[in-house]
Amino acid sequence: MAEHYLDNSATTVTCESAAQKALHMMTVEYGNPSSLHKKGLSAELELIKAKEVIASSLSVDADEIYFTSGSTESNNTVLFGVADAKKRSGKKIVTTAIEHSSVMEACKKLQNDGFEVVYLTPDADGVVPLTAFEEAVDKNTILVAVMAVNNEIGSIQNIERIGKIVKRKNPDAHFHCDAVQAYGKLVLKPKKWNVDSLCVSSHKVHGPKGVGALFLKKGVRIIPLLYGGEQQKKVRPGTECAPLIASFATAVEEFDIVKNKEYISELNSYLVDEIAKIDSVTINSSSSALPHVLNISVDGIRSETMLHHLEQDEIYVSSSSACAKGKKSYVLQALGLPDKLIDSSLRISFSKYNDKTDIDAFINSLKKGIDTLAKTK
User: Fold this and answer.
1) Residue 45 belongs to a domain with what CATH number?
2) Which of 35, 50, 117, 281 has a Cα at 20 to 30 A from 176?
3) Which residues are part of the catalytic machinery?
4) Strands (E), 17-140
5) Structural domain contains residue 234
6) Are 263 and 357 in a shared domain?
7) Is residue 377 part of a domain?
8) What is the pLDDT of residues 95-154, one digit of tens each?
9) Residue/partner pairs of 218-222 with CB below 8 Å, 24 or more apart
């Protein structure tokens, strides 16, 4: 039975070139990048090249790129690092009610530590109105954190316009963007958009798990989370994982944002047209959302039940963010959706390796599940 993987917002398959690069780094260029001998220098040169590749993809300078273990570490580094560095200037943090859990949980911790956190509510399409930022950001605001693309519904925030608002209302406020779901899918220009920090993750773009990159604009000060070692200007000390970093950069070198977006838009439209023929399915994602993500609900059938049914046919989707581990989606709750839609939601997410056969298999299995699975009242 053929496999049909449609859970690319959770993770992507590592592309062959990236996998081969990691193997090469682990078996040939395996030196410690901090070692002063030839083997160490070879590994260091690979890190330098990787920084240049990631920096170029974001139109920033190479010395503004720091490698981390992924977006959770990057988000935590910025939120706690900025809060600690700016706590004498103010205690207010502005974010949205649909951020990734690594931002939401960090904000809860900061609230417990005495910071004021304002969670802005999105509209029905999952977009936070710009007027909400106009009203929320003030002279006491030290940090604004907004994700570029939501991981569950694909809604796109206007980071460029939000950046202008933040800096006009308070030039000293730090503007952070979680761009994990946007990276490789949209053109990102953080410096042009008044973004002070931005994070991306390798395993969402056909690179390996366990590595990500953090853009930190020159002159921006944060207090580091980790101590020990001189690596990465002490912002993120510790021996760099050269195999994962080099593999990540190799995957990034294969980006073709315009071509892939056009292709995935066709897949999205095809799926939407097929879903429209099924009366018991509701589409939760907006037509203006990024085409790589489509969130739906199947009337009367709980997400977990349908997931396991689809899995039997080698079709893989998710019910919400993979980090949620099956908990009810706070993102869909923030949109004001009723429990019956939240409890039956599925997320289908595409990559460049998908095609219409994956969609046909999904639709056929979905219909079969609708006909045979027990429905809840």
Assistant:
1) 3.40.640.10
2) 50
3) 323
4) 65-68, 92-96, 116-120
5) yes
6) yes
7) no
8) 999 999 999 999 999 999 999 999 999 999 999 999 999 999 999 999 999 999 999 999
9) 218/61, 218/63, 218/64, 220/174, 220/196, 221/85, 222/77, 222/78, 222/81, 222/82, 222/84, 222/85, 222/197
